[in-house]
Amino acid sequence: MARPLRSVLLVAVCLLAATVACAEEPPPPPVTTTIPPSAGPTLPAPGVDCPDEAAKGLSIRLTNGAGHSIAAVDLGLGTSGVVLAHQSQGSLCEWLPYGEVLADKGFRVLAFDFAGSGSSTVPEQKTYVEDVRAAVTFLREEGVTKIVIIGASMGATMSVVAAAAIAPPVDGVIALSPPVTFEGVNAERAAPSLRTPALYIAGDTDGDYATYAKALYGATPADWRQQLIVPTPQHGIRLIDAEVQANVLVRNAVEQFLYKNAPLSD
Hints:
Layout: H1 5-16, H2 51-54, E1 58-63, E2 69-75, E3 80-85, H3 96-104, E4 108-112, H4 128-141, E5 146-152, H5 154-165, E6 172-176, E7 181-182, E8 185-186, H6 187-190, E9 198-203, H7 209-219, E10 225-230, H8 238-241, H9 245-261
Parallel strand pairs: 3-4, 3-5, 5-6, 6-9, 9-10
Antiparallel strand pairs: 1-2, 2-4, 7-8
């Protein structure tokens, strides 16, 4: 008598898998992804070091082109925007007081932490320019049509390089106490490619930073450049928030630049 077809098939399977018990194969294990401590939900809230200030805006997270999580605080409304880039060893917290001032004046403001700073991802390699680009992209996706980037010290260097790289171009860049280079990122090399208004500001007794600002001014196409050297030793963000006379000159110059290049809608 011929064997039933099922029995024949079973014998064949068992012969092919002689070293494996002839039983139903268990389902494959689930695929899991390990999230490193520096990424994902374990990251602290944006503005964790200044919760009272951060609470005045909307805390958000952006993903940059390298896949890093970038912490940010979104302030204000409108279609004229400002991206605020902090200085070395700083965070978005240093910008929030002035960010609130600009938001009250009618600007949409985004202050963010560079990757490796504040509440953002800690990467193996810094992604400065991509971090600025992520902030600009967010505002554009939110309907902001005019954007100026303002950076302090290290953030100023990165703002100039990002402004030269982002397409379509932003509507302006302001560099407060900008180093010519920082960790291999060269703003003087990028400045000739700028196709947007640029304002370089430094204190005349702040070490070599007035010289750096003048070098970047000189490297920027003549149609796009402005500079302001003020009588003060204050550096970076302190040019904005210091209670000194030079701070009035700087704020006036910054706000005139904003009103001209990112005018508020009616």
